[in-house]
Amino acid sequence: MTSNTYLPAGMPIPVPAADGLDAPYWEAARRSELVVQRCGACGSWQWGPEWLCHRCHSFDMRWEKVSGEGVIYSWERPWHPVHSSLKAVGPYTVVLVELPDAGNIRMIGNLLGPKDQDVKIGRSVKAVYEPHEAADPPYTLVQWVSS
């Protein structure tokens, strides 16, 4: 089976964790929005999702929409496939993106573009959304492109 998306068919489908903690993230991605957690008590941002704030230990964690604009903090270009369906895809570029409008938290994801693209620390990137409508259940991945 072929795929017109960045990632090939055969990858495991990302679904919310059984406890539902990350469900708001996946629901927002389906709407082409990026959300991250913010503490209602102290206002600090955090990623990945947790039940309590890492800073003040409050359980008042909320999901807030952010711009999806960031900068490359770090990156790597894996050549070894981490999943059997990636055998013919590599290399690909993975970036650690810092989000200035969310307290500089960092998220990891794929940087779309040529396999041999020139990647620079500090380069501006923005989130883009890759829907997988034919999957069961349907889902959307957050990917990154240079802006």
Care to describe what's here?
With 147 residues, the protein is mainly beta. The protein has one domain: OB fold (Dihydrolipoamide Acetyltransferase, E2P) (Beta Barrel). The protein has a five-stranded antiparallel β-sheet, covered by helices on one side. Strands 2-1-3 form a three-stranded antiparallel β-sheet. A hairpin with a 5-residue loop joins strand 1 and strand 2. The radius of gyration is 16 Å and the shape is globular. It starts with 22 loop residues before the first helix and ends with a strand.
The biggest beta sheet is recorded as: 5 strands, antiparallel
Q: Nearest-angstrom radius of gyration?
A: 16 Å
Order of strands, widest sheet: 6-5-4-7-8
What ranges have pLDDT less than 50 throughout 5 or more consecutive residues?
Answer: none
Number of DSSP helical runs: 1
Approximate shape: globular
Topology:
Layout (H helix, E strand, L loop, with lengths): L22 H8 L3 E6 L5 E2 L14 E6 L2 E8 L17 E6 L5 E6 L13 E9 L6 E8 L1
Antiparallel strand pairs: 1-2, 1-3, 4-5, 4-7, 5-6, 7-8
Task: Write a short abstract of this structure.
The chain is mostly beta strands. It contains one helix and eight strands, in the order αββββββββ.
Write a concise keyword list for the protein shown above.
single chain; 147 residues; mainly beta; OB fold (Dihydrolipoamide Acetyltransferase, E2P); 5-stranded antiparallel sheet; 1 helix; 5% helix; 35% strand
